[in-house]
Amino acid sequence: MKNKEELWVLKVGGKVLEDEMALATFLDQLATSGKRFILVHGGGKHASALAEKLGIPQQMVDGRRITDEATLELALMSYAGLLNKKVVAQLQGRGINAVGLSGADGNTVPAMKRPVGDIDYGWVGDPIPGEVNKLFLLTLLHGNLSPVFCALTHDKMGHMLNTNADTMAQTLAIAMSHHYRVKLLYLFEKKGVLRDLDREDSLIPLIRRTDIQALSDTGVISEGMLPKLQNAAKAVEAGVEAVLIGAASQLPHILSDEAESATHVID
Amino acid sequence: MKNKEELWVLKVGGKVLEDEMALATFLDQLATSGKRFILVHGGGKHASALAEKLGIPQQMVDGRRITDEATLELALMSYAGLLNKKVVAQLQGRGINAVGLSGADGNTVPAMKRPVGDIDYGWVGDPIPGEVNKLFLLTLLHGNLSPVFCALTHDKMGHMLNTNADTMAQTLAIAMSHHYRVKLLYLFEKKGVLRDLDREDSLIPLIRRTDIQALSDTGVISEGMLPKLQNAAKAVEAGVEAVLIGAASQLPHILSDEAESATHVID
Lengths: 267, 267
Prior knowledge:
Two copies of one chain form a homodimer.
Chain A: E1 6-12, H1 14-18, H2 20-32, E2 37-41, H3 44-54, E3 60-61, E4 64-65, H4 69-92, E5 98-101, E6 111-113, E7 125-127, H5 134-142, E8 146-150, E9 152-154, E10 160-162, H6 165-176, E11 181-188, E12 206-208, H7 212-217, H8 226-237, E13 242-247, H9 251-255, E14 263-266
Parallel strand pairs in A: 1-2, 1-11, 2-8, 5-8, 11-13, 12-14
Antiparallel strand pairs in A: 3-4, 6-7, 9-10, 13-14
Helix pairs in contact in A: 3-4, 6-8
């Protein structure tokens, strides 16, 4: 196990992508880190702004976008088109041989359209973990290419599906964990999981998978953080070495494994 | 030379892409042909429609789109996003392991921003033929992946560039011609190069590269066709086995090398 190479799977949210300066800094730091990586990006805000300009009404349920045909087209334009190619070109400009992908490209991440229950999410899909095209991803990584994923998948029957970016990153991290020592990094605005949301110095540096339920029950971790931690728990249980939750602004410190630079979730 | 494998580089225009039925038929025929291929697609009409909806004025000079920043964003959304992923997902649905790419992805097609002369085309680029990332393309093709290119490239300095789709296809065809017997197929509305534009039965089945100038001088070929033929001439001169110019509706006949199914341009 020790001689497996390290691989970082980073998920970055829309806020960094939409701020030109923040994006440039983030990509500079990533490019100069020398780390082998897969990048997964979100990008909800650009799609929302485009929806407004085009007069396409958007419906959110529990923070999830109901994806009708017109909204799927927005997602394709925004995530797979504008944002993905912007990131790829900028990484190329920094000497990183990036290749932009959706889960349909190379059949990398096949998904299942979410069944209609109380809510019909429309063209939303959940990755089928066992079906990730590992061979293709390994071929890219061995060829020193850096995959850059938008959070879109496909149903293998001709239709694209909108997918949660955290889940996309987790799926890719788990799939690669047999071949690499994978660190999955969720970047957001806060420094990590905080005991007190208003105090950055209240960082919880280490959380064991088995502690998550207790931390939730005792109210130490906020309701908004729970899905991310559950996601993280699943990843480390399935073989990912560690899941890190931290701030994009701390990237160099996180990538060089500095203490207290983010919250580490381990098995 | 004889034992090189055959590779088709097909360029399909916007009209087929925007007609759901025509696209489905085209992809059915391509998927069942069993041919190894690289597909290059245009898509100007969707971008134009989007420009109108978003109130972004479009300026065309000699049929070429002046590409300011807003127009480049339209191209990214439309070509690299919506159209590219639609085609990839539909090919996947037909059992073809397609991977959608721009020239920035994997640094496949680096380009040079067109110098500002009498006209400033903006973010428009012309591919640098010697710099195509052949190794990456060969890796994909050997892995039974089918690259699907939109006509966008990059300047290797962080910026995407709008590129002519015919030129993109020609560049890829030439780059692959050392490794495959490449047939470059330009699909459009007519059956091929016609002596009389109104009569499909006036097809010129074979044109030698060295005949093009005379055909142009004597007015046999129309002004609109000349750039395509010059493009074709350059391709066959550089090692592409044949350039075929024909109608998307004739695809099965063309792919099975039926006589009079398209115009063949050879060296």
